[in-house]
Structure formats: C-alpha cells, structure tokens
Amino acid sequence: MADLGDRKKAMEDQYFQDAERSIKLKSRMDRLLAQWIAGLIGRDDVAGYGAEITDARFKGGGDAGVLSKAISDLQAAGQDVSEQDVAAKMSEFLVEAAGQP
Fold first, then answer.
1. Within 13 A of 98's CA, how many CA atoms are on the CB side?
2. What is the sign, positive or negative, of the torsion defined by CA atoms of 68, 101, 45, 88?
C-alpha cells in the first residue's frame, strides 16, 4: 500500500514541477515578446509593458490573450503586423526562452 502512495506522491510532484517549468518558460517568452513589441510601438518602459503582457496571459486565456493584446497594441500604434507574424514570433521566442537558464 505504501508503494501506491509513493507512486501517487511522485506523480503529483512531477506534475507540479512540470507546471512550474511551463509557467517560467511562458514568462520568459512573454518578456522577449514584450521587448520586441515595445520596440515596434515606441514604448520605453519595457518592464511595464511586460507586466501588461503577463496580465493578458493570466486574465485573457493564455497564449490567445497575449496574442490578442499584442495585435491590439500593434494596430493602435499603426503597425502593420499580421496575427500570423506575431504568432510566429511567439513560437520563435518560446524556442529562445527554452534555451535560457
């Protein structure tokens, strides 16, 4: 019986480690995306914009919320960047973020 309890505990621990790793990875990706977009729209406070992107992730449904915020901000600044271009950048930044410590 202890064996089953040990396995359950190990699976729970693995689940939480994976979830934490995913959150950190998405956070690094969001920072890279915020830097890129801030440069395009002329925002000087990249950290502040990064916080807005993070808010969009948690309030707006993950990647879809981030993508929606990014497109909205780019359009408001008069930038002609397509949704596909932003999604491609997000994928690129995800790979880059995965390579960071």
1. 7
2. negative
Write the DSSP symbol of residue 100.
-
Residue type, 63: D
pLDDT digits (tens, 9 = 90+) for 35-57: 999 999 999 999 999 999 999 99
Contact 53, 30 (CB under 8 A): yes
Tokens in use for 91?
Answer: 């994928």
Which two tokens mark 98? 């995965």
**What was the pLDDT predicted at 84?**
97
Q: Which pLDDT score, from 0 to 100, does residue 65 have? A: 95
**How many residues comprise the chain?**
101
Are 71 and 87 contacting, i.e. CB atoms less than 8 angstroms apart?
A: no
> Is the pLDDT reported for residue 1 higher than 60?
no
Let me know: does 65 contact 53? Beta carbons within 8 Å. Answer: no
